[in-house]
Protein 1
Amino acid sequence: MIHDVDEVLKGLVGGGALAGSGIDVSFDVPSRDWAARRNAPVINAYLYDIREDVSRRQRGHTELRDTEDIVVRRRRPPRWFRLSYLVTAWTKTPQDEHRLLSAVLASLLPHELLSAAQLPGALGRLGLSVPLTVASNQSEARSLADIWSALGGELKPSLDVVLTVPFPAYPDYDAGPPVTEGATVRVRGVDGGPPRSEERSHRPHQVAAARTARGQSDRGQAAARPTERP
């Protein structure tokens, strides 16, 4: 799933205000060695933190139905994780870096909620929307100063981009076949004697409704037939 999120973020950044600019989007660690090797302007999106959003955790299951609206499989709710990216611009002058960051900000702000149709692969097949936040205050995330200190680099202007994405917690499991016949109860006498009560049966709601509808249809057809006179 994480690589799908990378592709989504790369498409949003490269397809917005930077479309046609030829500026690459990199997911490498922005260390001193990496900065020394680059020879062209680049946008770096470094994934620095992965945490579960426990406020979105759910219980129970969802039902998967076929074309006839019959439950065929069941799925437990996914677990939601927040992927935090440190987005920076790398050029020769600070002014150009600020222009690139402005372009990235303008490209991401209109996409506060990504629909399932915008998501690739298994992420899109879940059918869930993904929220995206830019430069918001995340209290539980690591401070930017600590991140740059761990990378061994100097503090740079950056955008904190967070996508909260669903991850399947468990595989789907098959559902039992639909009930088409009701249960029948028979109470017999002692030692094979005569039954103590009449047979009792229960018809499922769907079966009973279908038989009722079929009976009404038969009566309607009978009423529609012309009456023969002698």
Protein 2
Amino acid sequence: MIRKTLDARRVSRRELLSLFGAGTVAAMGISLAGPAFADAKAVDAAINKLTGGKTPASGKIAMDTPQIAENGSTVPITINVDSPMSDSDHVKALHLWADGNPSPEVASFHFTPMSGKAYVSTRIRLAKTQNVVAVAEMSDGSFTMAKSEVKVTIGGCGG
């Protein structure tokens, strides 16, 4: 009886193709939505959470970033924090954010007095033109911050 019911309803080629087509379009719609990007508010909230509401000072961080990055996949960045790196006065951590990436948290680096200096040279991925923010957490509980805008171009054609 069940077999007869199944045989009674044959699916035409046109119906089958339309069903697969609708499923493909639905799947594409989900993937074409793309990631939501962070913004300056998200970075400010993350910094506020890290600092416990304290306002970070400025001036101790030297951040070397390109003004224009032709390839957002490998943006070179160098950060140096002015600190004696002694037992009583050293950088505990350095945190990086990018306010235009889908996830604003880029990296965190941890230091001890044995590190000798608080220096980082790395490459990061940036989705589009945006600010890169560095916050250094000092051993005395204070924070210092620096910000740099990096313009990301696609094939050197502006962006």
